[in-house]
Amino acid sequence: MNMKSHFTFTKKQRNGIFLLLAIIVVLQCTYFFINSSSEDLQVNNSQWVHFNKELDSLRSLKLEKENFKIKTYNPNYISDYKGTLLGMSNEEINRLINYRNSNKWINSVDQFQEVTQVSDSLLQILAPYFKFPDWINASKKSNGSKLKNTVASSFEKIDLNTATVLELQTVNGVGQVLANRIVRFRNKFPGGFIASIQLQDVYGLSMEVIERINQKFEVKTPRKVDKIHLNRATVAQLVTIQHIDYDLAQNIVEYRLFNENYKKLNELLKVKGFPVNKFDIIKLYLLLD
């Protein structure tokens, strides 16, 4: 049998065979690289979930900014979040919060700019919506004559630690529910309030209503407190203070060790996670060596 005829190819046939072999090699290499790269690709599910949450949060914030409408407000109580929506920078917001934490009040548009250092252009946008308490506006118009009629003298004020529900209801904005809530909160502590700033912890009381309460009431018989020495306090001692949990207590102690003690109480504002708006309440329980 002549086998030679089965393995004899023309030039065109040989070229076709080589082309077919080349295509097979290319396909094999492509499959190998694609398959190996897919094996190396790994997805971190926890990071993926975290990324989606951040994306959803940014979308939500964008929608809120688009739908945000400015209403009249007291500029003393601008929060971090509201300040951001209003277009204030972090530095401007912090200046305002620190000013309030020093127990000072902004009573005019000019004073707001002086404290926050906002630009003239931003002030022109914000100022029309400022709403200061009525007694401040009255005092400006009458050079203080109406203010004397609105705010009782210290002698005339009623002790907040002995005030009755009926007496509290004489304040505009304090009904029976809020009056009862104030008394119940006060009575949780043997001896009552340390200072009127603790009214901020009563649920449902706005800062405007608290201002009106302070015009008629003050803490004349404050509860006695064994203050804790900040530079010697342990975590166990710090967690007994309102608004300080275990994590915050740890951060307070760590900051103290790293900075070789606190020099001023307001250094607490630099501690990670510290509730800035509760500083005036927390410092009632602390003592600096």
Automatic annotation (TrEMBL):
PANTHER family: ENDONUCLEASE/EXONUCLEASE/PHOSPHATASE FAMILY DOMAIN-CONTAINING PROTEIN 1, ENDONUCLEASE_EXONUCLEASE_PHOSPHATASE FAMILY DOMAIN-CONTAINING PROTEIN 1. This is Competence protein ComEA. SUPFAM superfamilies: RuvA domain 2-like. Gene3D superfamilies: Photosystem II 12 kDa extrinsic protein. The lineage of its organism: Bacteria, Pseudomonadati, Bacteroidota, Flavobacteriia, Flavobacteriales.
